[in-house]
Design brief:
heterodimer, A: about 100 residues, alpha/beta, four-stranded mixed beta sheet, 2 helices, about 25% helix, about 20% strand, B: about 260 residues, mainly alpha, about 60% helix
């Protein structure tokens, strides 16, 4: 399990903003195991911020994971509740997810 | 995100898209068949296991179809590709569309496909096409697990009771004729192989035969050697079974075109 996940953080002005986003996304959990956040699970891959557009990149655990649409919706909801109107959630395939 | 590094000018995006669709078709037809065991399996643990394996295959289909939609760039989504093509346009290998039969039929077919998938996805991981390689990197982990399961079942059923032995032997005899086309390619696929995009499927045959035979031996089963064989899946040919599969799969989307939540 990833205890110190390597989340790529886009450098530049607004790093404290990225930290804020990280903290918000810590609230997004596995729908079936709510004690684990998407960061704990290694699902969260990247957070980037371009002025006011937030792009969150996630990856699936196994190919047919049915929780992905729920997780995407949760990400959008969490960020929008915190005031982020323009949120893109992208899915990346590589590197392949592993425990 | 999904870069198309073709590695060869001759490999058109349409060819790559069609290649991805064929792989998606293999996955979706087999995934659908496996899902037919949900709530019908011999015992609970196997019900869960088969449902999970089905999800792995359906997930692969989604990835392949999404990529195909991008590659062909004709505005088709993964759902359009899955639900709005009829039998003749489906390009799956025929072994994938066969009915689940009894548990022995299912595990015999699954074992033969799993050995093939492990070989195939190991090769696809080296594709010059980044997205296909990435899909393969996910798929190979799952296929290795699928193979552990199906191989164990083949051994338990083969080297089991008189009845289980007879059923799994019959299952292998019935499905063997569908295995030849796993290792045959046409001109377009050959050109994709030459471009380093597609897997050299003929080259997989020797290892596949060796592995399958060693497991069948251990399971006290005979390796079928019938002359009968059937092929044509990649050319759009299909068995009498595919129509029923698609009728079930596609009913909602055909009855309510453009449906949304």
């Amino acid at each position: 399990m990833n205890t110190t996940p390597n989340i790529a953080v886009t450098a530049g002005p607004g790093n404290s903003e990225i930290e804020r986003l990280e903290a918000l996304l810590e609230q997004v959990t596995d729908p079936e195991i709510p004690i684990l956040s998407i960061r704990d699970l290694g699902i969260l891959r990247d957070i980037s911020l371009d002025i006011d557009q937030v792009t969150v990149t996630i990856t699936t655990t196994y190919s047919g994971c049915p929780a992905m649409s729920t997780i995407k919706a949760d990400i959008r909801q969490t960020l929008s509740a915190a005031g982020y109107r323009d949120v893109q959630v992208k899915q990346s395939l590589s590197p392949a997810w592993t425990t | 995100m999904n870069k198309q590094n073709t590695g060869n000018q001759d490999a058109s995006k349409q060819d790559i898209g069609n290649y991805a669709i064929a792989l998606g078709d293999d996955s979706l037809t087999l995934g659908h068949r496996l899902s037919e065991w949900s709530s019908n399996a011999p015992f609970l643990e196997e019900d869960l296991a088969l449902s999970n394996v089905a999800l792995d295959f359906i997930g692969r289909a989604m990835m392949f179809y999404s990529y195909a939609g991008e590659a062909e760039d004709a505005g088709r989504s993964e759902d359009d590709i899955a639900y709005l093509r009829d039998c003749r346009e489906y390009r799956n290998l025929l072994i994938c569309e066969l009915p689940i039969g009894d548990f022995a039929d299912t595990m015999a077919r699954q074992f033969l496909v799993d050995v093939y998938d492990v070989g195939f996805y190991s090769g696809l991981m080296k594709s010059t096409d980044e997205t296909l390689a990435a899909i393969a990197a996910k798929a190979i982990k799952e296929s290795r697990y699928h193979l552990r399961r199906s191989e164990e079942w083949v051994k338990r059923l083969g080297d089991g009771t008189g009845e289980s032995h007879d059923r799994i032997q019959r299952a292998f005899n019935n499905v063997w004729g569908y295995t030849h086309e796993l290792f045959e390619v046409d001109k377009i696929e050959q050109s994709l192989i030459n471009a380093g995009i597609a897997v050299d499927r003929p080259a997989l045959q020797a290892d596949w035969e060796r592995y399958v035979q060693s497991v069948l031996n251990e399971a006290t089963l005979d390796t079928p050697n019938g002359q009968w064989s059937i092929r044509g899946g990649r050319q759009g040919m299909y068995t009498e079974h595919l129509g029923y599969l698609l009728a079930e799969l596609q009913f909602m989307q055909r009855a309510y075109p453009g449906l949304e939540w």
